[in-house]
Amino acid sequence: MKILQIRERAVPVRSSLRNAAFDFGEMTTSIVAVITDRATGYAFNSTGRYACGASMRDRFIPRLLSADPETLLGDDGLIDPAKAVARMMTREKPGGDAERSVPIGTIETAIWDAVAKAKGQPLWRVLADRYGNPQMADKVPCYVGGGWYQPENDLALLQDEVRRHLDAGYTALKIKTGGLSLDADCRRLDATLAILGDAQNLAVDANAAMDLDRARAWAARLAPYNLRWFEEPVGVHAYGDFAELAASYSPALATGENLFCLADVDNLLRFGGFRLDRDVLQVDPPQAYGIDSFAKMVGLLETRGGSRRRVYPHGGNMMSFAVTAGLGLGGCEAYPGVFGAFAGYADDMHPENGLLSLPDAPGIGFERQKELFALMQELSA
Amino acid sequence: MKILQIRERAVPVRSSLRNAAFDFGEMTTSIVAVITDRATGYAFNSTGRYACGASMRDRFIPRLLSADPETLLGDDGLIDPAKAVARMMTREKPGGDAERSVPIGTIETAIWDAVAKAKGQPLWRVLADRYGNPQMADKVPCYVGGGWYQPENDLALLQDEVRRHLDAGYTALKIKTGGLSLDADCRRLDATLAILGDAQNLAVDANAAMDLDRARAWAARLAPYNLRWFEEPVGVHAYGDFAELAASYSPALATGENLFCLADVDNLLRFGGFRLDRDVLQVDPPQAYGIDSFAKMVGLLETRGGSRRRVYPHGGNMMSFAVTAGLGLGGCEAYPGVFGAFAGYADDMHPENGLLSLPDAPGIGFERQKELFALMQELSA
Fold first, then answer.
1. Which of A36, B113, B265, B269 could make an SS bond with B41 (beta carbons 3.0 to 4.6 A apart)?
2. Hey, is A26 helix, strand or coil?
3. What's the pLDDT score for residue B132?
4. Chain B closest CA to A139's CA: distance in Å?
């Protein structure tokens, strides 16, 4: 198996969303096609950050294409994504991971797609075999990441949204918090729960926008709700602040979509007060050096006594779905109706009672996601 | 004062160096020119990483140029670099700092150059006034970052190098470590000290290439030497490993050239076992959101009881010199004869007894660095 070409293109995400920390108005993502002699693999760098084609073109693609193809193969004669990452890391200075973990992780994920297609298997199956999944399920829990702030008529629109998700077959939901006053945010919670019911089906997400004082005030008011989790309550790398909240807030906390390397996760576990019996880890595989690196993070969590059932990868797309199903994680996210072509799953995958069935298409399965795959096909045509 | 244009260009660093972790063969840097109606400011993104022009062109330059110029001004009617950074951070997701801290920091540093020129003052003077330097010296300590591994005849070339630096007026030196066996590395130390004399004038740098076991073995052998410092002994974000070494290795440790934001420094101080009475902090201002952010890191260190005299910014260029002199830091680095045009100081600045005198050119003073300034002038022509 040999990489023939790697192509990438920046595409606008076209979203008018905002959360407590930022809006998505200018955001772009990089679509990648890894064209091999066996199959073409695709990926994109998730959402919430920017396209990263320049470093792919200047550094990572030339390094892969200049490698002796034999040196990138595993024992099965297919490309070993971990070896591809090691090659891309040539001449990289230690540290500064976020500058390269997204382009490298996106290329790595596209390589997995090509490898799974070369095997004629869905990626979730390939990952389960490669990393050993003790409890392969035939359905995967999926919750909605939604509840964005609306400039007008926010509460009524929020309740409409909750009803829409329930009608679509979802049972669990995450809404934004921290973008309004605490009282106003609690009114959003109450309005949501009035439709949704059980607070264990509701999480909130502060998008790392709060300082410790504000997070403490929110935590005190949120605790009696006993929500599913309180996500990114403080700064992404404010491990000390996270630990302080974890010591006083009894329900689950969640974080990880902005952790990009194994050292970040290690620091969260060592210094963040992360409670292995309840807190939730949410790294985004293509943003964090790819699926093999993600599997190492899950391994580290388990070595410390945590459970992969409390890992919910960020992303809400077929890539995070394959990882969730293949590694037997807790569940995945969905963003119905937002992020355009970059949100959601294969067109024929619909949740039933909050669960998604496993697709049987080879690879990641972008081929069954019409709008997105049209963009990908343009790239490899 | 109004920004008219910002131009950038990627330039190869053209270096054949290697350390324990990586080589510099493909490395590039971004030169930036911030053209205002009062003066043109220049900067580059230091060395050891890659050019970052794409994100400047796509995100940071358009955000600055689309801002109402009035909103970027300070009380003195000149551009306030901190306000420029806040503007560049619009629509940026929290975390992932390393992806943007270099392009933003480089533009910020170029803005300082323009502002200091508009005031008709050297940047060190402007910084001393802005941030309050309690002990402005008229000379700045400068040590050589050298001692790179040579593929052949390493020990003899190393001793030649030490003699050359002493002849040039330097008194203190840092050499690489961790790239050979411990015995071979100690032979390099002994060879260096045979020429240099006092071990307090010698530091070693492992460039974050060691795991904890290896770093422990090195620390045990290095301790009796009582070197000036042992730099980046372990992974950049391995705060726990750094703390373990700090608990057992009595002489100074150093780190920071790969810390890119205030949260990183805060974590080092909280969790890294960083000893405020001896350890050395080495953040690189244009790689870490710029000079204003760097000053906040120094402020944080002092708030915790540390001293700015143990801050030695990474870089070895006129930018780190201005920051060292202006903020009254411990000293700066020099890389004579390496990194081509991107190493070193104004052509008329020569060390005497290990000290550099303050230049009187307005701004950073690149104008007196002929080879580098020729590249910069091409950009603004």
1. B113
2. coil
3. 87
4. 32
Q: Which residue has the higher pLDDT, B359 or A22?
A: B359
Structural domain containing residue A27 = 3-120
Which residues of chain A does B59 touch, with a Cβ-Cβ cutoff of 8 Å?
Answer: 26, 50
- Same domain as A146, residue A89: no
Checking DSSP bridges between strand B28-36 and strand B3-12, what pairing results, if any?
Answer: antiparallel
Of the three residues B65, B95, B120, the one that is the final residue of a domain is B120
Contact B271 A24 (CB under 8 A): no
Q: Do residue B161 and residue B116 come from a single domain?
A: no
pLDDT one-digit tens code per residue, B3-57: 999 999 999 887 667 777 777 778 899 999 999 999 999 999 988 889 999 999 9
Domain boundary among B68, B94, B120: B120
3-state DSSP call for residue B148?
coil
CATH code of residue A56: 3.30.390.10
pLDDT value for B24: 73
Residues of B labelled catalytic: 176, 314
Q: Which of B96, B260, B270 sits opposite A258 (nearest CB)?
A: B96
Domain count, chain A: 2
B300 and B202, same structural domain? Answer: yes
Show residues of chain A in contact with B93, CB under 8 Å. Answer: 21-22, 48-49, 207, 258
User: Does the distance separating the beta carbons of B92 and A240 come in below 8 Å?
Assistant: no
Say yes or no for a CB contact (<8 Å) between B207 and A94: yes
For CA atoms A107, A113, A119, A123, the dihedral sign is positive
Residues A72 and A153 grouped into a single domain: no
* CB nearest to A21's CB, from B24, B93, B263: B93
Residue A304 and residue A254 in one domain: yes
- My answer on whether A141 and A106 are in the same domain is no
Separation of alpha carbons A22 and A77, rounded Å: 45
Do residue B153 and residue B216 come from a single domain? yes
Residue ranges in chain A whose pLDDT is less than 50: none
pLDDT digits (tens, 9 = 90+) for B286-339: 999 999 999 999 999 999 999 999 999 999 999 999 999 999 999 999 998 787
Q: Chains A and B: how many Cβ contacts under 8 Å?
A: 137
Predicted confidence (pLDDT) per residue in B117-158, tens digit? 999 999 999 999 999 887 788 899 999 999 999 999 999 999
Catalytic residues of A: 176, 314
DSSP per-residue codes, B58-126:
IIIHHHHHTS-GGGGB-TTSSB-HHHHHHHHTTT--SS-THHHHHHHHHHHHHHHHHHHHHHTSBHHHH
CB atoms within 10 A of CB A130: 19
Provide the whole-model pTM: 0.96
CATH of the domain at A343: 3.20.20.120
Partner residue opposite A49 with nearest CB, options B54, B93, B259: B93
pLDDT of residue A49: 86
| pLDDT for res B273 | 98
Clarify whether residues A178 and A246 are in a common domain.
yes
A271 neighbourhood in chain B, CB within 8 Å? 239-240, 267, 270-271
